[in-house]
Amino acid sequence: MSGDPVLESRVTLPDGRYGSRGRAPMSRPRRWALTGAGLLLAGGITFVAYSNLGNSPIDAERTAFSPAGPDSVKITFTVTRDEPGKAAVCVVRARVRDGSEGGRKEVLVPAGESTLSTVIKSSGEPVTADVYGCSYQVPPYLSTEAPPTE
């Protein structure tokens, strides 16, 4: 091509060799409908993310830890929840020197209690302990309630 606009406008390309020349622009109603659908989808994703990642209904904070033997650590923690009359479960863990998890334990938090202590056994010498997380979904093997009879 020489760069001359007159010559370039006369060149015709073989049919089917280079694909289609392009599509017609999208109609205005279709563009509005797709924009609205995109906004609804973004709003739904935002709602789900906020529900899962927003303020949690139950929170725990380690208040103290101390050695309880060569391979165990005692942790004391406080639980704050939006429903104090509801039982919960917290997972606490011991960490060894390299930062990896040396031991883990599920602790039942009975209704009405907020400060608990427990001893965690570790696979190595623990250097710290922390609360991994808490939930209202208490597993049946930790529950103090009698199982339903059939």
UniProtKB/TrEMBL annotation:
Assigned keywords, A-Z: Membrane, Transmembrane, Transmembrane helix
Keyword Membrane: yes
InterPro entries listed in its UniProt record: DUF4307
Annotated stretches, region: Disordered: 1-26
Regions crossing the membrane: 32-53
Protein name listed in UniProt: DUF4307 domain-containing protein
Lineage: Bacteria, Bacillati, Actinomycetota, Actinomycetes, Pseudonocardiales
